[in-house]
C-alpha cells in the first residue's frame, strides 16, 4: 500500500478535510489533485485503459467526498483511508468482470512466498502486467502487489479459491517467458 509522502503536511490535510466536509468545491479539487498521482496509479493497476482508470478514480473520490465525515484520524492516516475507499471502488467495479471463462481447479498450489514481481521496479511491473488478460491481471495485483490472501480475494470478487488459484498460476505461466527475457541470465527469478 502507498503511504502519504512527506510533501503532504498534516496541517494541510486537516484543512482540506474540513473544507471537503463543508462541501467546499475548491477544497475538494485541491484534495483530488494532491492524491491524484498515487490514486491514478492504483486504478491503472486494475484497469489498463486510461479512461476506465480515471472513471473509477473519480467514482472513488466521489465516495470519499460523500463519506469524509466517517474518517477518524485515530484509525490511521487519511491517505490510507482514501486509498482504501478508491481501491474498494475499483474492486466493486471488477465484480462485473466475466470470470466464468476460467477453469475452477481446487488443486492448483500457489506458493504465497514466491512473488515473480518482487525484484522488479514499479515501472517495469506495469509494463509486465499489460501482457495479462484483465481478470488475471486483477487477481495478480491483489495477491502480489496489494498483499490480499486468496480467501480475501475470493470474498471481495465473489470467486472460488480454485478460480483465484488458476489465475495466479496463469500469471506465473504468462509472465515466465517475459521475465526470463527481462533477466538476461535468469537472475532473481526462479520461475
TrEMBL record:
**Which GO terms fall under biological process for this protein?**
DNA-templated transcription initiation
- Name recorded for this polypeptide: Sigma-70 family RNA polymerase sigma factor
Source species of the chain? Chitinophaga tropicalis
- Which Pfam family is one of this chain's hits? Sigma70_r4_2
List the coiled-coil residues. none
RNA polymerase sigma-70 region domain location is 31-99
Domain of life the protein comes from:
Bacteria
Similarity remark: Belongs to the sigma-70 factor family. ECF subfamily.
Q: Which NCBIfam families match?
A: sigma70-ECF (TIGR02937)
Q: Does the keyword Transcription regulation apply?
A: yes
* Recorded GO MF terms: DNA binding; sigma factor activity
Domain named RNA polymerase sigma factor 70 region 4 type is located at 124-175
Q: Which InterPro entries match?
A: RNA_pol_sigma-70-like, RNA_pol_sigma-70_dom, RNA_pol_sigma70_r2, RNA_pol_sigma70_r4_t2, RNA_pol_sigma_r2, RNA_pol_sigma_r3/r4-like, WH-like_DNA-bd_sf
UniProt keywords, alphabetically: DNA-binding, Sigma factor, Transcription, Transcription regulation
